[in-house]
Write a structure and sequence with these properties.
The chain contains two helices and three strands; from the N terminus they run βαβαβ. It has about 80 residues and is α+β, with helices and mostly antiparallel strands.
């Protein structure tokens, strides 16, 4: 199965990379964009018997290694 962990800064945490991206988009004429948040995406193959087990493993990896929960949130998607 494929486990996808999307990591992004929590609301209220400054995102200088997002602000720079917003400025670049605006400079290129994309005036409808008002906010950009930049994050990370981890795509992993996991050997799990069920979707629930794969999701459990992904949460464990996220909490122990991939995410700084003080300043980051995350979401998980599992694909068979």
């Amino acid at each position: 199965m494929k486990a996808i962990v999307n990591v992004f800064l929590k609301e209220g945490i400054l995102d200088p990379q997002g602000k720079a991206t917003l400025r670049a988009l605006t400079a290129h004429g994309f005036s409808d964009v008002s906010d950009v948040r930049v994050g990370k995406r981890f795509v992993m193959r996991v050997s799990a018997e069920t979707i629930d087990k794969a999701e459990e493993e992904a949460h464990k990896m996220a909490k122990e290694t991939l995410v700084n929960e003080v300043i980051e949130d995350y979401s998980i998607d599992i694909e068979p």
